[in-house]
Design brief:
- The protein is α+β, with helices and mostly antiparallel strands.
- Helix content is about 40%, strand content about 15%.
- The strands form five sheets. Strands 4-5-6-2-8-13-12-11 form an eight-stranded mixed sheet. The protein has a four-stranded mixed sheet with strand order 1-18-17-16, covered by helices on one side.
- The longest helix has 19 residues.
- The protein is globular.
Length: about 475
């Protein structure tokens, strides 16, 4: 095996960040009267065309992203590296369309196997059996020795962030049903951990940067909800990025460490009034509104200095403040076209009034599922967006382009180009986040350890071997 030469010195970028989102989709088949079918069988039919061209159910796409079947037969889509939030949103929404594009053939193959049914893919976080699956956020950081302490400073923010970025859900309990900020909150079991199966931490600390480990570390946040509204994604990623900038710069932050993080995240989730308090490590008690306002005020105090004031930053801060104010005042009219939980609550309340039913009515459960269905026709959120009831951040044209084209300013550009030209050549190849490789008698590998580098002569030389 010939390994390509050592790459040139890395260019350390001070102002840019790499973002990524990983989404596990819920998978369900509606097939009345047909034989029982397992999720694994459905996933196999769904990914048949992927396996045909990629020779695997775990592939990288021409847009630089990864598509695969995760544990539990969940289709999962991990966006390519993005250095702008708009690119991230476009790629995230493109992922919904990419998995949905597999449905028609999957249903045809099911019919051929004796199952006449509809395949539904849901961008949500829980199923009717109480299982939870995730939406993971990735933020590239400069490597530092005190990562654990640094990450712990983010936990109070993440615990309370759900009051503005939660997906919203109907929570059913033996005492009755109520509406909550987040479906994910009840499924968190630790603040931080390197475990991936035995526990579900808010921040996964496994050291896997997918980059030069001497320079970078990846902040892997798994507490967030899968959200449908683009402005919610903008606020979820944007507010976290702004807080991380302060933490990275070692700005003295308010002492908001929580006494019991797992208790706090549940208490916050189930208090739609925003008046319940959580206990801090120093004995004080604050509301989630107060904690979020503290973080927002810290960010605003550094505008024009540590944080450059841009149109995007202003939009994030405006929505962040409006979200906090909406919870404080209980007037959701200023956010009910932008923030998932408020959009969904308005929808649920409207149908509850129409049906004259309680929150635990099965018809409302079906309404919730329909909201998260990624189908352009059956999916309620997609229909509401087309009707102007949910605002957008990026254009439909940008999303369609992101289905096949990688971001132009990150390493994903090189990966997407390699996949496209390798497929066209018919050569056997393997790809992961940091490697590009043609296999065979004269196999060659290029190692890409800089996620900011979007041009590389070694990749040019590698592709010349198949393009001439």
């Amino acid at each position: 095996m010939q390994i390509a030469e050592v790459p040139p010195p890395l260019e350390v970028e001070d102002s840019r960040r790499i973002f990524g989102l990983e989404t596990e989709f819920g998978l369900h088949v509606v097939a009345p009267g047909s034989r029982p079918v397992t999720p694994e069988e459905v996933a196999g039919h769904l990914f048949h065309s992927v396996v045909q061209w990629g020779r695997s159910s775990n592939v990288f796409l021409t847009n630089g992203s990864r598509l695969y079947i995760d544990v539990g037969a969940h289709p999962e889509y991990a966006t390519a590296e993005c250095d702008t939030i708009e690119d991230l949103i476009a790629l995230d929404k493109a992922g919904e369309r990419i998995v949905q594009d597999l449905v028609a053939e999957g249903e045809q193959r099911l019919r051929e196997a004796g199952v006449d049914g509809e395949i539904h893919l849901y961008k949500n976080n829980t199923d009717s059996a109480g299982n939870s699956y995730g939406c993971h956020e990735n933020y590239l950081l400069r490597r530092r020795a005190d990562f654990a302490g640094f990450a712990r400073g983010l936990l109070p923010f993440l615990v309370t962030r759900q009051i503005v970025t939660g997906a919203g859900c109907i929570t059913r309990t033996p005492e009755g049903a109520h509406f909550s900020f987040s479906p994910r909150a009840d499924h968190m079991w630790e603040g931080m951990s390197s475990a991936t199966t035995r526990s579900r931490p808010m921040i996964n600390t496994r050291d896997e940067p997918h980059a030069n480990a001497e320079l970078y570390r990846r902040m892997h946040v798994i507490v967030g909800d899968s959200t449908m509204a683009q402005p919610t994604t903008l606020l979820k990623i944007g507010s976290t990025d702004l807080v991380l900038r302060l933490l990275e710069a070692r700005v003295p932050m308010p002492d908001l460490a929580l006494a019991k993080e797992m208790q706090a995240i549940r208490d916050v989730a189930h208090d739609l009034t925003g008046t319940a308090t959580v206990e801090l490590a120093d004995g004080r008690r604050l509301t989630a509104v107060e904690i979020q306002q503290s973080f927002l005020d810290m960010v605003v105090s550094h505008l024009g200095g540590l944080i450059e004031r841009t149109e995007e930053v202003d939009r994030i801060l405006d929505l962040w403040q409006r979200g906090i104010d909406a919870v404080r005042t209980q007037d959701l009219s200023g956010i009910d076209t932008e923030l998932d939980w408020a959009i969904k609550l308005k929808l649920v309340q409207r149908y509850r009034d129409k049906l004259q039913c309680e929150l635990d009515d099965p018809r409302l459960a079906r309404l919730e599922l329909a909201f998260h269905d990624v189908s352009p026709t059956r999916g309620l959120a997609n229909r509401m967006e087309r009707e102007g009831l949910i605002r957008t951040v990026v254009s439909d044209e940008a999303i369609e382009r992101a289905k096949t084209v990688a971001p132009a300013t990150t390493r994903a550009h090189l990966r997407g180009r390699f996949v496209r030209e390798a497929l066209a050549s018919g050569r056997d190849f393997t790809v992961d986040w940091v490697h590009l490789k043609f296999t065979g008698q004269e196999s060659r590998t290029v190692l890409l350890k800089d996620p900011f580098r979007h041009e590389d002569e070694r990749v040019d030389m590698l592709l010349e071997t198949v393009t001439g």
